């Protein structure tokens, strides 16, 4: 059983937690443990000649688990002949063979890959007439009951705390029923449906009551995006606003989460409140900065009383008085600020984030999508170029799927019109564009773009990226388009990092031999493009480790377009004045296909330039609040040491 994996210290560590949580470094290890528990139960039931009744979820969270169950079947002979499954939910209305149906999801990830009997797989029916749904739901529950209830219920968790599609406001005794989906749930699903307008508004979901009646509940959550809701569900009050919090009242539930999803739990985020800790430099910095922001005082104004009243008296006893600790942390933070991201020539660099020498550095900026460079580090990019470094930028992927069809259509028409108007007879090119135009004009929601259309979309983004780099001052020899193959699936779902991706990355680093590499460090993003791009860089660096120039190569990580580093993590903060903020905005504007309504809007309705400005201003404000100089904006970096 999973619980036995929790060591003896857990009870004490978990005293803020009302649900047992098991934290893994990586989700890949976590799913193995869950799959083993399921497999053990299936085998026990087989020996007893009983069926094993499983409640299953869809979404991104259980994918790794299904992969591992399939592996257990194929490689270790685990049979699913005695397994009966009930899925939590299905969109309504939904045809079972539609690309986005949960029936199709379950078939491709699990049912069709193991020896489960098709008649034992139950997924709510999205094709019913509205008038039939109530009876159908009652029968779905009755069927579960007649089999003695769910042995194990697998769950993911929505950003709002939903379980199944029991959204905020669902009652603890709610039944299986037709529900309206929350805006936040629809937004999360909208990229699968090519936009919010095509995303279903309703779904059929198993009620909370049946979930609570399951003999065992295992909820999975991966990634930083789930950290807040995990903390609220596990440590907050039981409330209808957060349906997952009902699980605090289940007597056999476990949350299996990865390090990132656990990051807001008290024992992880502020461990000094939970137990006596070894105060490392990192923890002292985190605690003191957190304290200053909490009590709303600059660092140098913190008093002994502030430390004592906020659970930090042992730090005070160890390293105090407050005055000494304050000065130490103040200086550390102060030293992260530099207007010379490539190092300040002829300056004492002891307390600076970067080396003074060589004064002119070779620099390679990796940008996963064609606009991450300017969005996340546009000010720094410009500064590096202006300060005379040899700056290269490498666009790792084409970013083609994020271009809207009408935008592609406009460009395709332009080529056709141009050829016609000026009598250019290039039949092949005209043919290609004509085909693309016909495809786009008749494209259905679920259609995957043809290669020609993807090429057009990729070229649009290429032009935009080139335009930004020219704006910064780079010439074409310093702009590299890598078009890493892992990205080119034509779907949102990308491949894993592959040998070719790594080879291309190795070749570029080896050609430039950089003193500085900048890369998007979205370490918390488990499936996204940024993570794969970073994997390729890390693997390339590993392979190049022995090269002599690597001794002088420092790697700086900026965060992706969506988040910023925590204030306690930042090792280099590059300030910007109001004019530089405006200049960066104009650099972002070069990405016209990503402006005024984008394909992948996400939950945030602001434009990328707005998000970037708010985020950079917030960092600057934070430094100001902590007692540093007041700048208009700041870009932040963390150094990766290998
Ligand atoms: C899926 C379901 C939902 C998801 C939840 C998390 O059957 O019922 O509750 O588990 O929305 O989704 P992911 O795992 O995609 O983050």
Brief overview:
The protein is of the alpha/beta class. Helix content is 40%, strand content 13%. The strands form 3 sheets. It has a 7-stranded parallel beta sheet, with helices on both faces. The protein has a 7-stranded mixed beta sheet with strand order 13-12-11-14-15-17-16, sandwiched between helices. It has a 3-stranded antiparallel beta sheet with strand order 4-8-7.
Name some characteristics of this structure:
single chain; 642 residues; alpha/beta; Rossmann fold; seven-stranded parallel sheet; seven-stranded mixed sheet; 21 helices; 40% helix; binds fructose -6-phosphate
SSE layout and pairing:
Elements: H1 10-13, E1 20-24, H2 27-47, E2 52-56, H3 63-76, E3 83-87, E4 89-92, H4 102-109, E5 121-122, H5 133-146, E6 152-155, E7 177-180, H6 183-190, E8 202-205, H7 208-213, E9 217-221, H8 227-235, E10 253-258, H9 266-269, H10 281-295, H11 304-309, H12 313-319, H13 322-334, E11 362-367, H14 372-386, E12 390-395, H15 405-421, H16 427-442, H17 451-472, E13 479-481, H18 499-512, E14 516-520, H19 529-544, E15 554-558, E16 572-576, H20 578-589, H21 608-625, E17 633-640
Parallel strand pairs: 1-10, 2-3, 2-6, 3-5, 6-9, 9-10, 11-12, 11-14, 12-13, 14-15
Antiparallel strand pairs: 4-8, 7-8, 15-17, 16-17
Structural overview:
The structure is a single chain. The protein has 642 residues and is an alpha/beta fold. It folds into three domains: 14-267, Rossmann fold (3-Layer(aba) Sandwich), CATH 3.40.50.1360; 276-334; 362-402 and 451-640, 3-Layer(aba) Sandwich (Rossmann fold), CATH 3.40.50. It is built from 21 helices and 17 strands. It has helices at residues 10-13, 27-47, 63-76, 102-109, 133-146, 183-190, 208-213, 227-235, 266-269, 281-295, 304-309, 313-319, 322-334, 372-386, 405-421, 427-442, 451-472, 499-512, 529-544, 578-589, 608-625, and strands at 20-24, 52-56, 83-87, 89-92, 121-122, 152-155, 177-180, 202-205, 217-221, 253-258, 362-367, 390-395, 479-481, 516-520, 554-558, 572-576, 633-640. The strands form three sheets. The chain has a seven-stranded parallel sheet, sandwiched between helices. Strand 9 (217-221), helix 8 (227-235) and strand 10 form a beta-alpha-beta unit. Residues 1-9 have low confidence and may be disordered. Fructose -6-phosphate (F6R) is lined by residues 57-61, 88-89, 156-158, 162-165.
